[in-house]
TrEMBL record:
It holds the Pfam family AASDHPPT_N. It comes from Linnemannia gamsii. The keyword Transferase applies. Residues 144-239 form the 4'-phosphopantetheinyl transferase domain. This is holo-[acyl-carrier-protein] synthase. SUPFAM superfamilies: 4'-phosphopantetheinyl transferase. Residues 49-134 form the 4'-phosphopantetheinyl transferase N-terminal domain. Keywords: Transferase.
Amino acid sequence: MPLARWAFNIRQPLLLENVEPLVTRLTDDDTHGSDSSSQRPPNIVPVSNLLNFLPKSEADSLLQLRLEDDMRRALVGRLMIHAFFTAHHNCQWENLVFDNTESTKPVLVSPEHLKSVSYNISHHGDWVILVGNTDLSCDSPVRLGVDVMDFQEQVSGESFESFSACFQHQFTPNEITFMVKASSPESSSPDCASVDAQLKRFYRLWCLKESIVKALDINSDFDLKSIEFTIQDEEETEKPILSTVIGVHEPKPEVLSEEGWSFEEALLDSDHCYAIAAQTDTTASSSSEEGGSSSSPAILDGSEIRRFDWKELLKDAVPYPVHSSA
């Protein structure tokens, strides 16, 4: 089953050539919490000018975010969702309507025939990631979740024990052992624990658990300790890892089946990791195989994630009508 797997670094400057002639200076908010607009090169456009590519209700919501980075991440995330549906599901950018419900992601309301398309988005640090199903013809339902984390979020100088203490009730003993035994690649002794390496493993496991929660579309009350990840490839690289497997402890949560899951993990750069969780309906797959058809290809194929720039992200973008509140 083909999946779109997109990543966008929010530190990319938005150049005037990326948006002309689609967008003009429609906002006066050049700085959004910064006083550096007078020093901005003349060909750099404030990202707030892209708000007119969204319905007014969405744009107004994003303008409530006081920190510039928060607004950039949220804005890019919304633009990526629009770009995904436009690129892979043959619909017009300005006709997409979303509803912010109690779900963990915006719910597509229109076009109605695309409401069942599975997708998920995550942003943290410098990166925004989207994963989405591009194949409407597939008979097997799919659940998708993605999470990205910035390794540098912890307080500088803080010990691993103090940092992770408040999270330990969400990890199994085997997962805690995996984190604690992490050693620095530069260390000559395999028993020499490294705080940085421990924290990276912490974030890696946290990404995996969050990807499951988001794929299941459930709230934060879910008992994360009921899930245990067994990691075969101990160190991450930018090449996707597909060998990680899940185990579910008794009593098993009603919302969680142990079957049909696959996972992808990788580094986006030296400071950020991500994890994708994908679950297919194994019942439907089994029925197809019993009927004599060949098994479907792996949902995660190990290819590197596609990294977008502003030009690619906005190539199908169309401004919404000024008074649109969809």
